[in-house]
Amino acid sequence: MATQLRSNIECSDAEWQARQELAACYRIYDHLGWSESIYNHISLKVPGEDNAFLINPFGLLYCEVTASNLVKIDLDGNKLAHSDYPVNQAGFTQHAYFHRHLPWAHAISHVHTTETMAVCSLAEGLMPINFYACSFTGQVAYHEFEGVTVRAEEGERLLANLGDKRILMLRNHGPVVMARTLQQMFLTQWSLQRACEIQIATLSMGQPVVRVPDAVVQVHQRDLGQVNAGGAVGEADFAAWTRRIDRIDRSWRD
């Protein structure tokens, strides 16, 4: 695979594109208020390399992440390119296990937003009481809280509890969202965030909630595919938000 030198790193065209897209994603998350100081993580599989993925440098804010300072590591946590920064052990343990065992999980996000953590801390979890939540009915798995995710042996239980789902709500902790593409992962995260925001706002009113009947949920999920701005899932959304952050600060491209 041919490589080129860009911003003091040598990589393929495909890896550089992945780096730019992931750096953009970190900046979008930060702009939307989904960052958590220097913590949490979004990872992306390196195209054409089965055992390599990119993740944020531990110690930088999301607004400081750029294409060139993302850390490239293998599934055992070894750096595959020079970096002055370490990798968050919690991020590596959790993400590496999913990347290793789920061939389709190319993009993975874990956040600690107030609303998603609050819903993860409810006994019922996400409830079918709003437009966005109905999109996820029957598609969300749950994993009991075991403390900070730094022990490799917890990976087996994480995977078992995920089952055939693509969203794992870590009880008392926060969601893990996985997808085949970064764009699809972003749209899923955005929709889940909205679902949780609206649920928390609804419950705060202290009034009985209106639950959407299962039959209506099924129709809703069946027809969602008709609401698409064109292209693959999430492409138009991600492109729109990338234009937004470009107008603010283009340093993520370097």
Strand and helix layout:
Blueprint: E1 4-6, E2 9-11, H1 13-31, E3 41-45, E4 52-55, E5 71-74, H2 89-101, E6 107-110, H3 114-120, H4 131-136, E7 140-143, H5 154-162, E8 167-170, E9 174-179, H6 182-204, H7 214-223, H8 235-248
Parallel strand pairs: 7-8
Antiparallel strand pairs: 1-2, 3-4, 3-6, 4-5, 6-9, 8-9
Helix pairs in contact: 1-8, 2-5, 3-6, 6-8
Compact summary:
By secondary structure, the protein is α+β, with helices and mostly antiparallel strands.
Q: What does this entry look like structurally?
A:
- It holds the Pfam family Aldolase_II.
- Belongs to the aldolase class II family.
- With 254 residues, the protein is an alpha+beta fold.
- The radius of gyration is 18 Å and the shape is globular.
- The mean pLDDT is 94.
- It has helices spanning 13-31, 89-101, 114-120, 131-136, 154-162, 182-204, 214-223, 235-248; strands at residues 4-6, 9-11, 41-45, 52-55, 71-74, 107-110, 140-143, 167-170, 174-179.
- The chain has a single domain (9-248), classed as L-fuculose-1-phosphate Aldolase.
